[in-house]
């Protein structure tokens, strides 16, 4: 036997060093997940690796995002961007977001 099935893979176990709030985006290497529930420090919880989430984006002129755009998580500024520079691939936009929208709907892609 080479491999043993563990589970579907929609989420992974995660034990944070500091408290994580529901909705927080967590980056581990090149893996981006989102906490669906609060996870206290040093307590086993889970991160979603799939699903559709409304995620913060920058608003203003020229900041619209169209459906199908690849999006990257900017950990320093805590928003998604279509720019790969220093961002971790998060997924694709599944709905258009206008220039002044505060969020964009993203389908997570592990």
Characterization of the model:
- This protein has one domain.
- 0% of the residues lie in helices and 38% in strands.
- The protein has no helices and nine strands.
- The chain has a five-stranded antiparallel β-sheet, with no helix packed on it.
- A hairpin with a 4-residue loop joins strand 6 and strand 7 (79-81).
Q: How are the secondary structure elements laid out?
A:
Blueprint: E1 11-14, E2 25-28, E3 31-35, E4 45-48, E5 52-56, E6 70-74, E7 79-81, E8 88-93, E9 103-108
Antiparallel strand pairs: 1-4, 2-3, 3-4, 5-9, 6-7, 6-8, 8-9
Approximate helicity band: under 10%
Mean pLDDT over all positions? 95
What is the 3D shape?
globular
Structural class: mainly beta
Write the H/E string, N to C. EEEEEEEEE
Strand content: 35-45%
Ranges where pLDDT stays below 50 over 5 or more residues in a row are none
Summarize the main sheet. Answer: 5 strands, antiparallel
Tally of structural domains = 1
Q: Cα distance, first to last residue?
A: 25 Å
- The count of strands amounts to 9
- Strand arrangement within the widest β-sheet reads 5-9-8-6-7
Radius of gyration over alpha carbons?
15 Å
Counting DSSP H or I runs of 4 or more residues, the number of helices is 0
| Oligomeric state of the chains in view | single chain
Question: In brief, what are we looking at here?
Answer:
The protein has strands at residues 11-14, 25-28, 31-35, 45-48, 52-56, 70-74, 79-81, 88-93, 103-108.
């Amino acid at each position: 036997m080479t491999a043993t099935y563990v589970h579907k893979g929609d989420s992974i176990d995660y034990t944070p060093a500091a408290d994580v709030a529901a909705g927080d985006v967590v980056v581990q290497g090149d893996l981006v997940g989102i906490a669906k529930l609060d996870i206290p420090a040093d307590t086993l919880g889970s991160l979603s690796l799939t699903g559709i989430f409304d995620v913060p984006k920058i608003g203003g002129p020229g900041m619209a995002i169209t459906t199908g755009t690849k999006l990257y998580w900017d950990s320093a500024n805590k928003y998604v961007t279509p720019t790969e520079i220093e961002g971790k691939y998060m997924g694709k936009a599944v709905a258009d977001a206008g220039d002044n929208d505060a969020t964009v709907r993203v389908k997570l892609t592990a």
